[in-house]
Specification:
Strand content: 5-15%
Radius of gyration: 26 Å
Helix content: 40-55%
Shape: globular
Structural class: alpha+beta
Distance between the termini: 104 Å
Number of strands: 13
Strand order of the largest sheet: 2-1-13-12-11-10
Amino acid sequence: MNIFFKKLRLLLVFYLLAISSLAHSQNMQAEMADFINGFHNFKQFNGNVLVAKNGKVLFEQSVGFANFEWDIRHSNKSKFRIGSITKQFTAMLILQLAQDGKLKLDDHLATYLPDYRQDIATKITLRQILNHTSGLGNYTQSKSFRDEYSRNPYSVDEFIRLLCSDDLVFEPGTEFRYSNSGYFILGAVIEKVTGQKYQDVLQKNILDPLDMKSTGYDSHNKIIKFRVSGYDNDLAGYSNTDYLDMSIPYAAGSMYSTARDLLKWDQALYTDKLLNNEYKKQMYQVSEQRNYALGWEVTNLDKSTYGKPLTRIQHGGGINGFNAFISRIIEDKLLVIILNNTGGAPLTPMTNGLLAIYYGKTYEKATEHVDSKLYNAFKREGIAGLKNSYQQMVSEGNTPRERSLNYFGYELMQMDELDAAIKVFELNNQSYPDSANTFDSLGEAYLAAGHKQKALTSYKSALKLNPDSESAKQAIEKLQ
């Protein structure tokens, strides 16, 4: 009889623990859903979220539309462009070639691309390109990139010659500078070494072995089922993002995927299916210049953050109309994936919030952006309402940051709301009278509205605060 009751008591304990665990999981899911919905309700996020542990999904949510014009809602099948998350796949392909003895990470680029500028190729190594310490520039930062190059298809060799062959910006191995040009060049290295197209090597070496059937190399020519449309998100609402030919991001950012497929990728990285332990260690080895390894950012979190020391390995990606984030807590095999198709969603604070919820820590909920608050006040009550809303923020000790207010002013200018833009720049100037930039922006708005004398006065004040301001000098010369 005693044995019977002991067994019964043990079964009851297990039952209560299971009920408690289920309740905790449900509460956590509800809290995460409420957290994500907060960003969606403020029109700061539109897409898919997945949180998993040990390969099992703890939380998954789809919010908003994959296509606004056809009212097609997101689902777990939605395929997003993932931008620079592509870089970790490119890094993996390079590491696999090193593992197979087909290249060496510390060889100079000249060994594999003999046609590239030899004065540079003989100085930089593949490892330096992988961890962004090569000194190579960044073609997306080129002033003419968006208008002259971004919409046109190019061969790999053509594009390297046109936009990835500038002089080095620093001596290799001395600094960190994020370089899309470098990862584009790595794609060319993969093609030279293998004799195959980058996308074919990607498919054969990673996507097929991991059964990542919802992931691929993007192209506008392909018919891709469940492909998500990309949008820009500003005060006026959503709009179709600018066209970008996908031959241009290439090995630096041309992939698409789903949250579920990226979970497969995450799980494979804990095994030796793609890479052995020696090269996995190198993949996560950061440079002396920055906590950036080979396609990943690696951060050691101290105990005060989540209650115990943890290693966070993560990377973001941004491309026209999309941004994406993958964050992995190695010790707990915890994964957070966020995919968005309305431009610049705040994915870092969203990721931090989801991690905090999982670990039972405090976090910041979504709040309405300053420009949104002020713009809504302007729509309701005109410039007077905008001014009153701003003054209320100031009186409550919440003076908007100079940069945020300046950006808002330019948004209004783009919407042809010049009078409102002028008022915003004036308010910014009053709050930050020692900033040359507030005078410069105000001068630009005055000039756009035809107030030349006021513009001249503002530009002179900007130049007085910053004698090196070229924009102020040029404007004054034209106005005098």
